[in-house]
């Protein structure tokens, strides 16, 4: 290296062409050693720096007394053949033709339109297989499906396809334009193959150009219509549909993608940042904006699966109809991002045919080894910090699920941090290891109910009706409580501790003896031998629970407390048995109350609510 060169400088130079894991300097030999993620990365960087003008020399293998000459691209003794390489297509290498427009688009679009609770169910049908074979000279070659039947008739083995002349019509070698009979193995199965070759030699010579599109052919703006199968169901329960086209569009492992939408703790949408894919995406977006006033408002009732355009913050986007609501609204998915939203019919515009035929750019992936759990505030922060970030995509072909969605790993391009691992730390609950991990009630945030006029509340428990108090939450909060309840069941059933005696005010997981299910609780004290008073904090109900039915509380369960005690204005401090009986009849658990007024006392985590129609009926019965 030239004098004064730092490790950081070398890291930056090499990172332009490959994934660098470490840079080391050996004082004895005076050489710098660069560790790469794969042999492919190492070879790609090596060849890119062979004739560098930066002042340093590249040494391959063991250190030699004199610097090695530039390595010929067709050197037969190379450890990795050129046709086997997979070049990482970093955004840093790509011309930023649309950089400004791209950044503005992502920044504006992602504010809102995030639907974290559900994901579409994808179903794969008619999985196709292609047959790969090895050429006599070691090249990886695949005969495409459309030419598997030769003019000579009969069926041939994979090996025979490399030796018999198959009758290709109007197919020319990508390099020399001679008639050819072979195709690059990674490009197999695509309709617009860009890797036809007459020999392995031509494949080698064309590799410097072909490697940037190998296994990921150019996506034309005008292609055949994809069969967007009907998603005729509501947002939460969509029917399975045929998404086999998604497999063909899946970016290959090792390239850079960007996260476009967060759907669940283990499901995100990604978009390829390969140069050709990103260029086509930007052209599509720019083309939509140029349509402007030529667009016509959609007429009639749209069909499920139909593609339209919609405007958001002065930008047009492609949307697909998922389902209709009872009103003049429809559930849609932004097919180039993955976000789900509800739009009014008047906000839909007819999409020109050329834009309905372009495949979606955003594809769903499942985060490998990450469970599908309730998204706590910690998980949400981690996931949204990666929104619109560039990450490396890593998966294997066997990671394809039955529904046609790949299980993948995503690795931060800049920090080299595993996105999956960061989420798993909070997504998988574990029992406390020591006293420092014990959680008390103040560990959880208490969310107060809204105050004001005409507010709807859900009754969670009415067991304290004799004091004129009920426990309530809002409808959205009640849904949240039901959603994280399933994570509590799974943890309690699998935790190793089978008997637990908490401290005073310590959080725990306790079984309710009426329905036999597990809930969050707070220890209030012992009752006799082997039992304790537990307040179920999501219902504010106090019950006696056997110690055998109590489990320690995990740090990962950071769900806030959404339920608060509410005093009904106009009731006495102590209610008679007849009054309590009538009140429980009028206000059973699960009832939605329409409160004329809600007043909050945040210091006491307490509320006073007005229910004049309840008070009026009680007076008419002479109970007040």
Automatic annotation (TrEMBL):
Protein name: Protein vreteno-like isoform X2
Superkingdom, natural source: Eukaryota
Keywords on record: Metal-binding, Zinc, Zinc-finger
Gene Ontology molecular function: any one: nucleic acid binding
InterPro entries: Nucleotide-bd_a/b_plait_sf, RBD_domain_sf, SNase_OB-fold_sf, Tudor, Znf_MYND
Signal peptide stretch: none
GO cellular component: cytoplasm
Organism expressing this protein natively: Glossina fuscipes
Matches recorded under SUPFAM superfamilies: HIT/MYND zinc finger-like, RNA-binding domain, RBD, Tudor/PWWP/MBT
Tudor domain ranges (all copies): 301-358, 501-560
Domain (MYND-type): residue spans on this chain: 173-214
């Amino acid at each position: 290296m030239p004098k004064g060169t730092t490790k950081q400088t070398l890291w930056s130079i090499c990172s332009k062409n490959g994934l660098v894991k470490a840079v080391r300097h050996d004082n004895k030999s005076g050489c710098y050693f660069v560790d790469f993620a794969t042999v492919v990365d190492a070879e790609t960087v090596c060849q890119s720096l062979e004739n560098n003008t930066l002042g340093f020399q590249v040494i391959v293998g063991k250190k030699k007394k004199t610097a090695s000459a530039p390595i010929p691209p067709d050197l037969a003794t190379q450890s990795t053949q050129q046709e086997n390489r997979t070049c990482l297509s970093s955004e840093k290498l790509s011309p930023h033709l649309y950089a400004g427009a791209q950044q503005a688009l992502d920044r504006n679009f992602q504010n809102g339109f995030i639907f974290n609770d559900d994901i579409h169910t994808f179903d794969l049908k008619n999985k196709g297989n292609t047959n790969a074979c090895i050429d006599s000279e070691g090249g990886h070659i695949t005969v495409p499906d459309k030419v598997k039947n030769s003019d000579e008739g009969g069926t041939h083995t994979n090996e025979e396809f490399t030796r018999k002349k198959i009758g290709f019509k109007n197919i020319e070698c990508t390099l020399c334009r001679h008639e050819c009979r072979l195709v690059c193995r990674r490009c197999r199965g695509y309709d617009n193959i860009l890797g036809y070759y007459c020999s392995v030699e031509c494949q080698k010579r064309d590799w410097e150009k072909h490697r940037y599109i190998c296994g990921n052919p150019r996506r034309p703006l005008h292609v055949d219509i994809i069969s967007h199968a009907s998603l005729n169901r509501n947002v939460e329960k969509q029917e399975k549909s045929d998404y086999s086209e998604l497999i063909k569009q899946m970016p290959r492992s090792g390239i850079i993608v960007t996260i476009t939408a967060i759907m669940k703790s283990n499901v995100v949408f990604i978009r390829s940042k390969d140069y050709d894919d990103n260029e086509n995406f930007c052209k599509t977006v720019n083309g939509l904006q140029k349509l402007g006033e030529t667009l016509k408002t959609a007429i009639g009732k749209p069909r499920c699966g139909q593609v339209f355009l919609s405007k958001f913050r002065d930008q047009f986007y492609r949307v697909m109809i998922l389902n209709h609501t009872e009103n003049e609204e429809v559930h849609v998915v932004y097919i180039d991002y993955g976000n789900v939203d509800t739009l009014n019919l008047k906000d839909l515009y007819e999409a020109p045919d050329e834009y309905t035929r372009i495949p979606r750019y955003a594809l769903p992936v499942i985060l490998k080894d990450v469970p599908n759990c309730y998204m706590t505030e910690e998980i949400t922060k981690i996931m949204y910090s990666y929104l619109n970030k560039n990450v490396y995509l890593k998966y294997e072909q066997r990671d394809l699920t039955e529904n046609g969605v790949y299980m993948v790993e995503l690795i931060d391009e800049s920090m080299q941090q595993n996105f999956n691992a960061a989420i798993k730390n909070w997504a998988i609950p574990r029992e406390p290891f020591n006293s420092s991990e014990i959680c008390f009630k103040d560990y959880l945030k208490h969310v107060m109910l809204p105050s004001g006029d005409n507010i709807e509340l859900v009754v969670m428990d009415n067991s304290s009706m004799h004091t004129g108090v009920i426990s309530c939450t809002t409808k959205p909060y009640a849904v949240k409580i039901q959603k994280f309840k399933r994570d509590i069941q799974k943890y309690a059933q699998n935790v190793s501790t089978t008997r637990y005696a908490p401290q005073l005010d310590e959080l725990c997981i306790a079984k309710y003896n009426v329905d036999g299910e597990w809930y969050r609780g707070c220890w209030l004290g012992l009752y006799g031998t082997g039992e304790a008073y537990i307040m179920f904090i999501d219902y504010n109900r106090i019950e006696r629970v056997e110690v055998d039915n109590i489990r320690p509380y995990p740090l990962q369960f950071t769900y806030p407390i959404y339920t608060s005690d509410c005093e009904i204005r106009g009731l006495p401090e102590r209610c008679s048995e007849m009054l309590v009986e009538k009140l429980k009849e009028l206000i059973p658990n699960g009832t939605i109350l329409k409160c004329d007024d809600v007043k909050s006392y945040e210091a006491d985590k307490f509320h006073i609510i007005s229910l004049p129609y309840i008070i009026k009926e009680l007076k008419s019965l002479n109970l007040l």
